[in-house]
Amino acid sequence: MKISLISSWGLLGGSIPAAVFVTVLLEAFGLPLPGESALIAASAAAGAGATRLPYVFLAAWAGAVIGDNIGYVIGHRYGQLLVARYGDRVGLTQARYARVEAATEKYGAFMVVFARFFVVLRQFNGLVAGSTGMPWPRFLIANIVGAAAWAGLWTVLGGRAAHWLTHHPNAMHAVPLVAIIAVVIFVAIRLVRKRRRR
User: Fold this and answer.
1) What is the pLDDT of residues 116-134, one digit of tens each?
2) Which residues fall within 8 angstroms of residue 192, CB to CB, at 6 or more apart?
3) 3-state secondary structure at position 98
4) What's the CA gap between 78 and 85, in Å, rounded?
5) pTM of structure
6) What is the CA radius of gyration of the chain?
């Protein structure tokens, strides 16, 4: 079912790597799209034989690098003005932008590498780096490394998981239970964090 869903969702003639590329690219410069989820699902589809895993990795890596650099150019040219006018529409409030900006100024290139593994930071990584004046060569190198690590991690994990499940079909019965437990843990963590903030 997952494979057919991804295939029908694919762009350019049902190409799974093309769908991953476009989704990750658009997410990388601020649009609220599920880039990481798309990568994991596509990797799982590749692990089950629907496409080739290296193509999924290259699509995600290229989409992340290109998208982040588009974000960098936008941030470098328009910066705070753009955030003030349109930030709320894509979930980038002034308070959220200030936190990401402070982290970028504090950690520099390391922030660019590790930002790809976190939802809000991943979406506005390039935009904030450009607006804070980080030199583009430094950003590009860190961005290439971070995108490769992120795409490599989820491609391997998604592919391995799908490959294992296809060879252990009985394990599929445990998936709904694991999903429910994961959701309960996630909700509990969010509630605890909200109480601490209050």
Assistant:
1) 888 878 888 888 889 888 9
2) none
3) helix
4) 11
5) 0.72
6) 18
